[in-house]
């Protein structure tokens, strides 16, 4: 039996940050970062267009090249955001999906509601003879509401049944590219938006993919499943997430709105803040509270003593008279981005201090900025609905952003701004 190979060109992607680079990797004899991975399969591939593929072997490639509208949570199997950031059930026969902005196909085209509607409608149209049409037999049509909003309408006889949103055979294809290439050509040279980019396909021999550098590798570790008896051991979840450059470009240019919320940081006596845990309910409550003031606002939590602690997923700094201040490490996550800013400040001969900061101190600040792995350093434009004085970003914040860019060898602001549409 002839064996067919799938080549994956791998590598470590760092988005303007040392967060991944400084993560300790267990020593493995002969292991290297990057390079090629070869996967052997016992059968040949048939179709690389998800609209017509019905082969389990094809799904190995389709799952790497394309993205779906939503995904199923790896532990609970609950529908979870992916291309769609959220959705509303308008009625028993209508679901409205709101798409993430800034997602691009591998050829640079924006992924919009037109692409989503085109994909679903093409599959459901029996004239196209898609083998996957039966999976959408319940769907009447997909309707574009605006550039990043799409409605899925259920046939009356199936209402409110609408199950087929999370399978690989409903991965989203670029409408303009498909129409320009034609269905047959697209099937041989697919263009998706997923973590790997198609390079070549020699039928019967191999398919070659390369990593998509506009993706963010996310990992989570749980204690594992335990119902009765001893734990089964940790569960490690690794997934790729699209980097939303356009959103971050606006954050760099315009700054963000920071709101001090009533939700408090969990005291250190109850939970060690040095543990980076992603399922803390109080962080989500803080975000919802800030968004009641401004849908685009970011929260800042206080500790039980009324001093500033941290945000929902980030640390913060303030600048006063050229001096840099950040909360003490008593009740905050010791963020790697935060530590990197302190190192850069030392190199730039900027005076910095870790101190207790009150809300009054914040309102006297000349500049405020946040630090996190994704955007590295993000300027704050407003605090509790009051604009900060001076330019955004301020001179000290800009100096640190420039130093960070120099350190990682790429202009972290321009990297995002280059993705903005004219």
What's the total number of strands? 21
What is the strand content? Answer: 25-35%
Number of helices: 10
Helix coverage percent of residues?
10-25%
The CATH architecture of the largest domain comes to Alpha-Beta Complex
Assigned CATH class of the largest domain: Alpha Beta
Morphology call: globular
Structural class: alpha+beta
Count of discrete structural domains: 2
CATH fourth-tier homologous superfamily of the largest domain = Dipeptide-binding Protein, Domain 1
Largest sheet: 9 strands, mixed
Radius of gyration: 24 Å
The end-to-end distance, rounded to whole angstroms, is 53 Å
What is the fold-level CATH name, i.e. the topology of the largest domain?
Dipeptide-binding Protein, domain 1
Query: Which residues sit in consecutive blocks of at least 5 with pLDDT less than 50?
Result: 10-26
Overall pLDDT metric: 83
In short:
With 422 residues, this protein is α+β, with helices and mostly antiparallel strands. The chain has helices spanning 56-65, 113-124, 175-181, 183-188, 245-254, 281-293, 336-347, 359-363, 395-408, 412-417; strands spanning 4-10, 35-41, 70-72, 79-81, 84-91, 94-99, 139-146, 149-154, 196-202, 206-211, 215-222, 235-242, 256-264, 298-302, 308-310, 315-320, 323-327, 352-355, 367-372, 376-383, 386-387.
Key traits:
422 residues, alpha+beta, Dipeptide-binding Protein, domain 1, D-amino Acid Aminotransferase, Chain A, domain 2, nine-stranded mixed β-sheet, four-stranded mixed β-sheet, 10 helices, 23% helix, 30% strand
Plain-language structure description:
The chain has helices at residues 56-65, 113-124, 175-181, 183-188, 245-254, 281-293, 336-347, 359-363, 395-408, 412-417; strands at residues 4-10, 35-41, 70-72, 79-81, 84-91, 94-99, 139-146, 149-154, 196-202, 206-211, 215-222, 235-242, 256-264, 298-302, 308-310, 315-320, 323-327, 352-355, 367-372, 376-383, 386-387. With 422 residues, the chain is α+β, with helices and mostly antiparallel strands. The protein has two domains: 4-215, Dipeptide-binding Protein, Domain 1 (Dipeptide-binding Protein, domain 1, Alpha-Beta Complex), CATH 3.90.76; 245-417, D-amino Acid Aminotransferase, Chain A, domain 2, CATH 3.20.10. A hairpin with a 6-residue loop joins β3 and β4. It is globular. Mean pLDDT is 83; it is low at 10-26.
């Amino acid at each position: 039996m002839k064996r067919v190979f799938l080549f994956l060109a791998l590598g470590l992607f760092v988005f303007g940050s040392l967060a991944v680079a400084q993560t300790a990797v267990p020593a493995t004899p002969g292991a290297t970062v990057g390079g090629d991975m070869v996967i052997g399969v016992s059968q040949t591939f048939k179709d690389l267009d998800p609209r017509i593929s019905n082969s389990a072997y094809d799904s190995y490639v389709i799952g790497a090249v394309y993205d779906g509208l939503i995904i199923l949570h790896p532990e609970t199997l609950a529908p979870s955001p992916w291309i769609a950031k959220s959705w509303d059930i308008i009625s028993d026969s209508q679901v409205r999906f709101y798409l993430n902005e800034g997602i691009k196909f591998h050829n640079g085209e924006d992924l919009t509601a037109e692409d989503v509607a085109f994909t679903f409608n093409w599959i459901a149209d029996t004239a196209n003879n898609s083998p996957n049409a039966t999976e959408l037999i319940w769907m009447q049509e997909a309707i574009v509401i605006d550039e990043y909003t799409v409605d899925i309408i259920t046939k009356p006889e199936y209402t409110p049944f609408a199950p087929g949103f999370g399978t690989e055979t409903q991965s989203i294809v670029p409408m303009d590219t498909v129409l320009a290439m034609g269905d047959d050509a697209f099937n041989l040279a697919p263009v998706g938006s997923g973590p790997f980019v198609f390079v070549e396909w020699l039928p019967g021999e191999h398919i070659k993919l390369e990593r998509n550098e506009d993706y963010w590798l996310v990992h989570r570790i749980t204690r594992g499943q335990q119902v009765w008896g001893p734990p089964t051991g940790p569960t490690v979840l690794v997934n790729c997430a699209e980097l939303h450059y356009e959103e971050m470009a606006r954050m760099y240019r315009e700054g963000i709105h920071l709101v001090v919320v009533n939700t408090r940081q969990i005291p250190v006596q109850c939970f060690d803040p040095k543990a980076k845990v992603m399922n803390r309910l109080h962080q989500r409550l803080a975000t919802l509270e800030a968004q009641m003031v401004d849908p685009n606002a970011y929260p800042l939590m206080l500790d039980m003593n009324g001093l500033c602690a941290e945000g929902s997923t980030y640390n913060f700094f303030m600048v006063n008279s050229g001096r840099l201040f950040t909360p003490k490490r008593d009740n905050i996550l010791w963020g790697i981005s935060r530590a990197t800013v302190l190192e850069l400040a030392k190199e730039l001969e900027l005076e910095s201090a870790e101190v207790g900061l009150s809300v009054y101190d914040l309102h006297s600040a000349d500049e405020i900025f946040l630090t996190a792995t994704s955007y590295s350093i993000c300027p704050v434009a407003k605090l509790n609905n009051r604009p900060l004085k001076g330019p955004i970003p301020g001179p000290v914040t800009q100096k640190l952003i420039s130093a960070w860019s120099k350190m990682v060898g790429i202009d972290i602001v321009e990297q995002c701004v280059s993705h903005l549409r004219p």
